[in-house]
Amino acid sequence: MTMPTKEASSSLAFFVILWYDILSMFWKNKNFKALGKFFLLIFALCFILLNFPYVVYYSERASMSLNYRVILAKLAMPDFAKQEKLAWIWEVKAQEISGNIFIDKIGVKAPLVFADNQVKMTDSQLRELLDRGALFYDGSVLPGKIGKTIILGHSAPAGWPEIKHDNVFSDISKLKNSEKIIIEINNKEYVYAVFDQFIVDRGGDLPEYTDLTKSENVLLLVSCWPPGKRAKRIVLAAQFIKL
After folding, report:
1. Mind listing the pLDDT tens digit for each residue in 98-157?
2. Which top CATH class is 65-242?
3. What are phi and psi for residue 117, nearest 5 degrees?
4. How far is CA 49 from CA 12, 16, 52, 54, in A?
5. Does the pLDDT at position 168 exceed 80?
6. pTM of this prediction?
């Protein structure tokens, strides 16, 4: 999807002025008020149709943040998050943490965003964080540590404009088993190999991978599915293989 062109915007402005003049003429005459209301309805419908690309653009963008609120609320519930969260918060506060995610196969290179108390954030606050890059879920463990490392990111339909980081996880469904993902934290690189991929319903449970997470580090990349929609979500699982 692309943003409407300047030519379309100019045509729309001309259309609005024209209809305003017509409606003003009718409205001054009481006998024509009923007819004026009819024209007003037609105008509203035409305005929506002509302005449809804008309506779709902003409604789809708003739906992304709503999807992540569901994800974060669900992620707040598992035991692993409760067990690790206190240690994670203190570690974040104890030092400056910065990072990036690299997936060469699909051309992803994006900063990681860190923030505490994500579950309590508003839609606009979450959207602001996701606009900055891929969001590191604050209830998960740091890369390389035993447990789950969870990263959330936007996805967008094909043809979506390259703005902010709306497309960061749009193509993760194309990744195959054994393909690599690199997480960089404070200039240290953690390499992961993809081993699983699945779709879950909105509000559905993420897999525990209990056998692995008891002794190893598993990375989960989470995004909305289909890209840009909020009905479901895609989860890509990768196993830590080397530092």
Report:
1. 899 999 999 999 999 998 888 787 878 888 889 999 999 988 899 999 999 999 998 887
2. mainly beta
3. 55, 45
4. 11, 13, 5, 10
5. yes
6. 0.65
- Higher-scoring residue by pLDDT: 92, 170: 170
Tokens of 75: 């992620």
The DSSP string of 113-145 is: EE-S-GGG--HHHHHHHHHHSEEE-TTSPPTTS
Rounded CA separation 147/79 (Å): 11
Map out the domains of the chain as residue ranges. 6-50, 65-242
Contact assessment for residue 219 and residue 149, using Cβ atoms and an 8 Å cutoff? yes
Closest CA to 40 of 13, 28, 22: 22
Over the Cα atoms of the chain, what is R_g? 23
Contact 238, 207 (CB under 8 A): no
Residues 6+ apart with CB under 8 A from 134: 101, 110, 111, 112, 113, 151, 152, 153, 165, 168, 169, 221
User: What is the maximal distance between C-alpha atoms in the chain?
Assistant: 81
Mean pLDDT of 17-41: 63
